[in-house]
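Q: Entry one of two.
A:
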Amino acid sequence: MNNNTGIEIVGSGDNKILSNTISKNEYGTIITQSYIDNNNSIKYNIISKCMTDICIVNSKKISIELNNICYNVKGIELYDVHNSYIIKNNFILNIKPFNCFNGFYCFSGLDNFVNLNYWNRPRLLPKLIWNLWGPKFDFHPAFKPYNINV
């Protein structure tokens, strides 16, 4: 709490960021240069009141699942990220819930998978996610927030 970065992982694999409360930081969680099928996981966390909640750069096989991502300026930012999953998270009252840069790699084909997230309100239709290369979608957004216990 009240730091530049809550948790930072650089060039490392098979890390599990589980069951944390990360709050009031410039960055909640940063994963960078984890590019050799690193299998890092961010799960069951409450990450709130940060400028950027989760920032992932030059990484592969990241799993972001069942997190409360709330009251941040930016929920998730991805830069050159491949083969990753963003599923069953609660995005609540973030100014920009999801930013994707270098969109050619983000969400192209089966490369990255975004599905079943709760996007601040009940949704019956797919959730539009903008990135630099055009719109992408969470085709099955959750109708209600997940009960995520830390």
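Q: Entry two of two.
A:
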Amino acid sequence: MIPSLRAPTLPPPRRTPLVRSGELWIKVESLQRTRSVKYRMVFARVREALESGALGEKTTLAEVSSGSTGVALAYVGKRLGLPVEIHAPSSIRREKLEAMIACGANLVLHDPRRPVPELINEVRTKAARGLCWHLDQYSRGFASTCYDPLAEEIHDQLIPQGNPFPRTLVCPVGTGGLIQGVGSWLRRRVPGVRIVAVEPAEGQAIDGTRNTALLHLGNKDPYDPNFPDEVVRVARPAEGVRLRGVTLGESASAAVLAAGARGGEPCLILGPD
């Protein structure tokens, strides 16, 4: 039996700033560890696995990812001294690939035409055989509580300032865990909150997002397309939005621009990157 890790040291997620710009409140997760909100989810999942004894001293952490989740998992594996195996299409953006490799991850590249569900099932099968531990970000509902601390953090940042909580949440859709996690928390606590999903328009590519009308895995998809109250599909931002000297990533910039086009409506924006 592989012994469990003892007294692992994983840095907790940072408390990122909530920046106000007119009637918009933007949660700037580009200042999070690994420069993405995905660190919060990976941290929560891996900590849970550590506490349950699911990880041994040589357990391989595995996932299918071509973006920020893979970077976050690679970073966590490096901190814990555990091997990391990331499966991604060979079309992965170079900056993401280099960030994963810099953390020592083993990157397994696949033909971009290979269906994502096939890759996911391959990793799930390996995990079932005990060959790795699978983060499994594509399992519906698994991230629902991973983002509760983020929602609580935002609430604590707004309320002491005497600000009314915005009744509209604007969030980009990637795997869908972020908007569903924070959105579910808000629906339980903020009466009348409206959830607005931001997706790329047809023919557009925005890093970290997808058009769920064109790319969705059906009942096996982690994202429920009926979850948001409204879906806004937008063009790729010409450049990153700058806030207090910080340039937001593409998905965060798209969300800020989409919220800004709502005619002065007070909005809370989740900026994943």
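A: Comment on entry two: The domain at 18-35+147-271 is CATH 3.40.50.1100 (Rossmann fold). The CA atoms of residues 64 and 116 lie 8 Å apart.
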